[in-house]
Amino acid sequence: MVVLSVLVIAALIAGLAIYLYIVGSQLQRVATHLEECASIVQTVVGHAEVIEPDVEHINRTGGVIAGALPLLYGMAEGIVAGVTPRPSQPAERPPAVPASGRRRSRLHDAVGYRP
């Protein structure tokens, strides 16, 4: 019984050692990839530092434009209202007169064609 207990404990320790080796190698790969990512992020930060003042200027300009949009919209509506012609009142139509002679086709009138 003692020998069997020692064998089970040895198998458990061996299993844990194999598990820890596998997990350690996977963590080592993750650490390597993280180091590569850190260098890429440093490169991106270096590039962003160069354009940051220009982006701030663009944001300020965009804020000015966004603040002026309601005023421009109101001015544009005023211009459109002043230029748009008012619809004239249609003249009263005379009463319908019966067709004399041969009746014409009304297919052209249905599609908006006026010969």
Describe the model.
The longest helix is centred in the middle third of the chain and has 82 residues, at 2-83. The chain is an all-alpha fold and 115 residues long. 76% of the residues lie in helices and 0% in strands. The chain starts with a helix and ends with a helix. Residues 84-115 are annotated as: Disordered.
Distance between termini? 114 Å
Low-pLDDT ranges: none
Query: Count the strands?
Result: 0
* Global outline: elongated
Main sheet specs: none
Class by alpha and beta content: mainly alpha
- The average pLDDT value, as a whole number, equals 83
H/E topology pattern: HH
Number of helices: 2
Q: Proportion of β residues?
A: under 5%
Overall radius of gyration = 42 Å
Instruction: Report the helical percentage.
Output: over 70%
